[in-house]
Amino acid sequence: MEPFKEVFHRRAIQCLGRILSAREPSFDGKRFESLAMKNLSSLELKQRCDQIYRALCATLPQDFPRAAEVIRASLHPSCDGNAHKLGVTEEGVQGWMIMPLAEYAGRECGEHWALSLDLLKEMTMRFTSEFGIRHLWLARPREVMKVVATWTKHENEHVRRLVSEGARPRLPWGKQLPGFIEDPHATLPLLEALRDDVSAYVRKSVANHLNDISRDHPLVALDVARRWQADASEHRQRLLRHAMRNLLKQGHPEALALYELTTPRLKLAKLSLGAHELPMGGSLTFSLHLQSNARTPQALRLDYVLHHQKANGRLTPKVFRWKDLTLAPGEGLRLEKTHSFRPITTRVYHQGRHRLEIKINGAIIAAADFTLR
Hints:
Number of strands: 8
Helix content: 40-55%
Structural class: alpha+beta
Number of helices: 16
Number of domains: 3
Strand content: 15-25%
C-alpha cells in the first residue's frame, strides 16, 4: 500500500500544471512543476501541499481576480466531491489537488474575500475547502458568517458540510479558530440549521463540530444535546451519540446521564489476557466475563483504556471504543477483543510494561498489565 502522502504525486502535479497552462497562457508550467516537485519524495503530506501552494503563488497571475478566474476554469465539471476515485484528470481538478488551490484562495485573496469565498464554495464541491476557508474565518468572521449562513440551504451537500466543517473550532490538520473556541455559541445557529440535514455526511460534520465544542465547553455541548434530544429522530440520536463520544469516553457524569448509563452492578467482572508478553507489531487478545448483579436490565457502554509506554518510561492512557450492550438481570456474558500493535504513522510504540483497563459506564471495573518486547 502506498503511503498516504502519495495523494500528491508527480503525475498529479504535472496534470495540474497542464490544466492551468491551458487556461492561462502566461502560466509557466515547467517552473510550476520544478517548484512543486522539489525534493518531493522527502516531504510528508502537509509539506507537499504547502510546497504546491507556494508554487502556485510563484506562477499564477499576481492579480487575484484573474488567478481566481483561471482556477475556476480549471475545476472538474463534476460536483460530487470526488476525493478518492480518479482525482485530478485532464478534464479538470478534483480530489486532493483541490487542497493547495483552496490554500491559495484563502491566503492570497487580499481584499477580494467575497470572490475567494465563492471560489472556495465551488472548490469544495470537487473535494473540500475546509482548510482554505479557515483563513477567511480568521480574517473576516462577521462577513464570512453572513455569507456562509445562507449556504445551509444550498442544494449541494458538500457546500452544506463546509458550513459546519470549515467553522469547526479545532479541525484536525487545520488552523484553530480561537474566536469560536472562546465563544462556543457563535456557530450554534449554523449547527441548528444543519442538525437534521438529509445528508449523513453533513450530519456527521455537525456531530464533529459539537464534539469540538465539548472539548472546551462541555456544559455548553451538553445543554445543546439535551435540547436536541427532545423529539429527536433516529438520525439526530446517532448524531448526538457521535457528538458526545469524548465526554462519554471520559466518563463525564452528565453525558452518561443523557443515556441513563449508571454505575454498573456486577457480580463478576473478570479480565483475561491471551498473553502477558507480546512481540513488537503483535496483537493483544483479551476476554471479559461479566455477570449482572441487578434486578433490572442494565445499559452498558464498554470502552478499554491502553496505557502506552513512552520513551521517558511513563505510561500515557488512550481510550478506545468497544461496544454498547444490554445485560439482562443475572445474565452472564463473555466478550472477546483483539487490539493490534502493528506500526502506524500516528503512534510510536515502545518496549516495556503496558496496562489495559476496562471501563464500563465511565467506571474502571478490571485491569491487567502486559509487556511489549
